[in-house]
Write a structure and sequence with these properties.
Length: 163
């Protein structure tokens, strides 16, 4: 049975039994684990599997993602643990701007850039301490129904005196 935890913000993250999730193909690999397409509750999702020995990193990423609630930032849906991995269940992008095989107009690119900027402004306006993305680049711009979403990685809490 899933339990629910609530952060200081209004976003709620479920703690789930990982047997509820059907992992599919791997779509990315990073220094802390892998990302897979998956099915959870009849919904296509992305699952980031983090090595158990990186629990400190997992706790930080979960805490950061659970505070974010903006239409232009990828949303954490649930977390889980199994014998080998720590799981972050997130929205699944249709595509990555960087990987698009079709041409798009300057107008479309500007629209995506504007959406990205709204996500960055949301991060910078967070209270009590602003958040910096640190890795803005096209591979971290995901597409969802024609809108761009920032993939969150490498967030840093800044101080207003240094920004």
């Amino acid at each position: 049975m899933a339990s629910v935890s609530k952060s200081n913000n209004t976003h709620i993250t479920e703690k789930i039994d990982t047997s509820e999730v059907r992992l599919q193909e791997r779509i990315d690999k990073g220094s802390f684990g892998t990302v897979h397409k998956a099915i959870w509750r009849n919904r296509k999702v992305a699952v980031k599997l983090i090595d158990k020995d990186r629990e400190n990193y997992f706790d930080i990423e979960e805490a950061q993602l659970s505070k974010l609630n903006h239409k232009n930032i990828v949303r954490l849906l649930a977390t889980g643990r199994d014998k080998e991995n720590l799981w972050l269940v997130m929205e699944l992008a249709e595509d990555v701007v960087h990987n698009l095989q079709v041409s798009y107009s300057v107008s479309q690119a500007l629209q995506w850039l504007h959406q990205c900027a709204r996500g960055v402004v949301y991060l910078h306006d967070m209270k009590p301490v602003p958040v910096l993305h640190r890795d803005l680049k096209s591979p971290n711009l995901l597409l969802f129904n024609g809108r761009t979403i920032l993939k969150i990685c490498g967030l840093v809490h800044g101080s207003t005196s240094r920004i």
